[in-house]
Amino acid sequence: MPKPLVIKADDDEVLDVELEEDFIKANERMAALNRRTFDRAGVRVVDFMGSIGSGKTSIIERLVESLKGKYRIGVIAGDTATDIDAERVSRHGVPSIQINTGRECHLDAPIVRKAAKKLIREGVNLILIENVGNLICPAEFPLGSHLRAVVVSVTEGEYMIKKKADIFRSAEVAVINKKDMSGPMGIDVGALVKDALDANPKIRVVVTSARTGEGIDDLAQALGL
Ligand code: MG
Ligand code: ZN
Question: Which segments constitute the CobW/HypB/UreG nucleotide-binding domain (predicted)?
Fold first, then answer.
């Protein structure tokens, strides 16, 4: 299996959320340009956000397995330093690109553009993006994706969604993962579903277990795939 391509961000390449409003605006303009590029190329793009350990990579691996007969899939995985995620995904036989953001804790539209263009040249028609593990600033940096999904796991505790409501407002789909752990953890999944809907009444909520595969078909449907 060939090693996945790794793109490392230059120090000034990934925009910082503390920087001026202008940078947020510049990112939004680039995201809009990305969207036009994706639409012109006939590529559907989904951005998965969520904490480290919520199961973003496992969810993407499951989706790749269930959809790779239907779409030509490419994956872009964001992480500060490692290529673990792209490595895992590439084992499923789809092109995957790792972006290392260095000090920055989110992906942004310019660096995603660079990776997406490579995948488009390889002929993909579905790109799944794994954002850097973090439930705060990815919300402020749209990438030009058609849909944003936020992944939380029941192991993150019962207040996770209430505390990070903003990111749920920025997403169209909420994935409540590790359902198989809800019994052992004593977590009420129904209450988490309600919290997600309280944060964003329009969000589609899907309960999954990436470990068993439960809910993955429902998730594909919620993503319109
Ligand atoms: Mg991951
Ligand atoms: Zn950040």
Answer: 48-205
How many angstroms does the Cα of residue 145 sit away from the middle of ligand 2? 18
Q: Any idea which ligand is nearest the CA of 56?
A: 1
pLDDT-based confidence at 31, cuts 50/70/90? very high
Kindly identify the ligand whose nearest atom is closest to the C-alpha of 17: 2
| For the chain, counts of helices (H) and of strands (E) | 9, 8
Structure tokens at 221: 């449907």
Taking the centre of ligand 1 as the mean of its atom positions, its distance from the CA of residue 78, in whole angstroms, is: 8
**What's the pLDDT tens digit per position in 96-122?**
999 999 888 999 999 999 999 999 999
The pTM of the full predicted model, rounded to 2 decimals, is 0.92
CA pair distance 37, 53, nearest whole angstrom: 31
Closest CA to 195 of 221, 169, 223: 169
User: Residue 185's pLDDT is what?
Assistant: 86
> What is the full DSSP assignment across 97-115?
EEEE-TT-SS--HHHHHHH
Distance CA 31, CA 112 (A): 9
Dihedral angle sign, alpha carbons of residues 78, 84, 87, 89: negative
Domains and CATH numbers, the chain: 5-222 (3.40.50.300)
CA 25 – CA 83 distance, rounded (Å): 29
